[in-house]
Amino acid sequence: MTDWMATLREQRALAEKMSTDIPRTLADPDLTFDLAMRLYRALDSQADFMKLLAQKLEQSGFDYDIVSAAERLEERFADLAADAAEKTRELRR
Fold this sequence. Notes:
The protein is mainly alpha-helical. The chain has three helices and no strands.
């Protein structure tokens, strides 16, 4: 059986680290289009994972606050993915 709470804690720690690291990476003048695109894809995949986790938590009857925390993490990863997508558009020009 999956320990969803442990997964949620791991994802929260990852989101906190990425919230610091991603903006710094995207601001690097040496960032290439390919790297920005890979970063976007990874963040988008992470947002999709968090969406699935939120759904699983809700289906398993977890408290609203827990499900809401997972949804907030999904939004954070989606926001980071959007930032990376914007950077790919800038680099493509």
